[in-house]
Amino acid sequence: MTLVFKIVATGEWRAAERDGVFAGAAVDRADGYIHFSTAAQAAETAAKWFAGRDDLTLVGIDAEALGTALRWEPSRGGALFPHLYGPLPFSAVAWSRPLPLGPDGRHDFGNLQG
User: Fold this and answer.
1) Distances (CA, A) of 36 to 16, 103, 104, 105
2) What's the whole-model pTM score?
3) What is the pLDDT of residues 62-112, one digit of tens each?
4) Distance between CA atoms of residues 42 and 94, nearest Å
5) How far is CA 114 from CA 33, 49, 74, 85, 111, in A?
6) Contact indicator for 37, 82 with CB cutoff of 8 Å
7) Is 60 within a domain?
8) Cα distance between residue 38 and residue 89, in whole Å
9) Could you read off the pLDDT of 8-39 as tens digits, one per residue?
């Protein structure tokens, strides 16, 4: 299983779990797709867009389960990033957990396999 990752405000994720659908955060909806990161991209994404925030959830998603709605497109520095065109089906979510800040003020991702 290839995992891609979504960093999302915990309140937004809890609401999505309650409602049974995640259509993305405000920036995702404005851009027309849900932004994901690979394991190699996640820390830089967190530092760039979520620095200092301790109210986050990290979601691991099975990329293959998203089918053709997942597209790999150039973004930051020309790197290919996974973008989901459509709502995230909860059947593709492998796990979710808090994304805490470490003692150095950077997010502590732990083991991204589970």
Assistant:
1) 16, 25, 24, 22
2) 0.93
3) 999 999 999 999 987 888 999 999 999 999 999 999 999 999 999 999 988
4) 16
5) 25, 23, 27, 25, 6
6) yes
7) yes
8) 18
9) 999 999 999 999 889 999 999 999 999 999 99
DSSP state for residue 17 in the 8-state scheme: H
Retrieve residue 26's tokens: 């405000």
**Residue 65 is part of a domain; what is its CATH number?**
3.20.170.20
Establish if 111 belongs to a structural domain: no
Dist CA 92 CA 69 (whole Å):
12
Cα 63 from Cα 107, distance rounded (Å)? 23
User: What is the pLDDT, as a whole number, of residue 1?
Assistant: 87
Tell me the two tokens of residue 1.
């299983």
Query: What does the pLDDT average to over 41-54?
Result: 95
Domain membership of residue 73 (yes or no) is: yes
